C-alpha cells in the first residue's frame, strides 16, 4: 500500500513546498485508530480517508499538496473495546490548531481538513473557531472541514445499491469500502448486526430514527454489543467500488470549487465606516 505520507514529502523538499504554498490547496487527511467491530481492522478510518485523499491528489496534482494523514483521532468513546488509540477532544482540537497554524506559517491560505472519522467532527469544528479568531484579521485564510461521506451526499445516505439508510460505524458502507480497498483486512464471517438499544422515538442509535433535534452521547459499549453498527453483513466489494469512486469524485468537485473561493474581507471595516 502507498500511504499519503509517501506520496508527498518523500518527493518534495521544503523549497518546492514553500514555493507552491500560496497557489495550491493543502489537504490534511484526518483518520483514527479505533475498534471497528469484530470484522474490520482498527486502521479502517485512516485507510479509507488516506486513499480517497491520494486519489484526489493524483487527479489534481497541479493544484493540491497532500499532507501525511493524521493517523490518530478523537475516539475515547471506543476505548471499552481493544485496539483503540485516542486523543481527548480538547487535545485533538489543539493538535489540529497547531498543525494548521504550521501550514499557515508555511504560506498556505487554502486548507482542507479531510475527515474520515465521525468523532473528529466536533473537536475539529472547535479548532476552526479558534483558528478563525487567530488568523482571520491579518491572513484571511480559507480553512474548511470536509468529511468525505458527507461531501458525497445521498451516495452515502441510502441511495442504491446500498441497502441501509446511512454510513455509521463498521457498517455496510465502511465494510464495503474496505472489501474494495483492503480485502485482506476484512473478516466477513464475523460481520453481524450488533445488539442495539431499543428505539425511543427520538434518538437514532444507529440508523433507526431520523434526526429530530435531540442529541445524547453514550460510550460505544452502551449502544453496540460488538462495537459495530448498521448492517455490515450486507457489504460487498462492488458496493465499495461504487462508494469509493463517488467519494473521490465528490472531493475533486469540491476542491475545484474551493480553489476559486475568494478570501473574505472584513465587511464591517471595508469602507472605513462603522456598521451597525
Structure summary:
With 276 residues, the protein is of the alpha/beta class.
CATH topology heading of one domain: Rossmann fold
Number of strands: 4
Please provide the ordered H/E string of secondary-structure elements. HHEHEHEHEHHH
* Largest sheet: spatial strand order: 2-1-3-4
Radius of gyration, whole Å = 20 Å
Spatial separation of the terminal alpha carbons: 56 Å
Outline the low-pLDDT stretches: 1-10
The global form is globular
User: Class of one domain, according to the CATH hierarchy?
Assistant: Alpha Beta
Amount of beta strand: 5-15%
The appropriate CATH architecture of one domain is 3-Layer(aba) Sandwich
Summing up helix and strand content along with how strands pair, one would put the structural category as alpha/beta
How much helical structure, as a percent, in the residues? 25-40%
Amino acid at each position: 500500500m502507498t500511504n499519503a505520507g509517501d506520496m508527498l514529502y518523500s518527493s518534495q523538499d521544503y523549497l518546492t513546498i514553500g514555493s507552491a504554498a500560496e497557489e495550491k490547496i493543502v489537504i490534511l487527511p484526518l483518520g483514527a485508530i479505533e475498534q471497528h467491530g469484530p470484522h474490520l481492522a482498527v486502521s479502517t478510518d485512516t485507510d479509507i480517508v488516506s486513499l480517497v485523499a491520494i486519489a484526489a491528489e493524483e487527479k489534481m496534482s497541479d493544484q493540491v499538496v497532500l499532507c501525511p494523514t493524521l493517523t490518530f483521532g478523537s475516539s475515547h468513546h471506543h476505548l471499552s473495546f481493544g485496539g483503540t488509540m485516542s486523543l481527548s477532544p480538547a487535545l485533538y482540537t489543539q493538535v489540529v490548531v497547531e498543525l494548521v497554524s504550521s501550514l499557515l506559517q508555511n504560506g498556505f491560505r487554502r486548507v482542507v481538513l479531510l475527515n474520515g472519522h465521525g468523532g473528529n467532527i466536533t473537536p475539529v469544528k472547535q479548532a476552526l473557531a479558534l483558528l478563525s479568531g487567530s488568523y482571520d484579521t491579518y491572513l484571511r485564510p480559507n480553512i474548511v472541514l470536509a468529511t468525505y461521506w458527507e461531501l458525497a451526499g445521498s451516495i452515502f445516505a441510502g441511495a442504491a445499491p446500498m441497502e441501509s439508510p446511512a454510513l455509521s460505524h463498521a457498517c455496510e458502507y465502511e465494510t464495503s469500502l474496505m472489501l474494495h480497498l483492503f480485502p485482506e483486512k476484512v473478516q466477513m464471517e464475523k460481520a453481524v448486526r450488533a445488539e442495539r438499544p431499543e428505539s425511543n422515538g427520538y434518538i437514532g442509535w444507529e440508523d433507526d430514527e431520523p434526526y429530530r433535534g435531540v442529541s445524547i452521547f453514550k460510550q460505544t459499549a452502551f449502544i453496540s454489543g460488538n462495537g459495530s453498527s448498521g448492517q455490515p453483513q450486507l457489504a460487498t466489494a462492488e458496493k465499495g467500488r461504487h462508494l469509493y469512486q463517488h467519494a473521490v469524485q465528490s472531493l475533486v468537485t469540491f476542491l475545484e470549487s474551493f480553489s476559486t473561493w475568494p478570501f473574505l474581507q472584513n465587511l464591517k471595516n471595508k469602507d472605513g465606516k462603522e456598521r451597525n
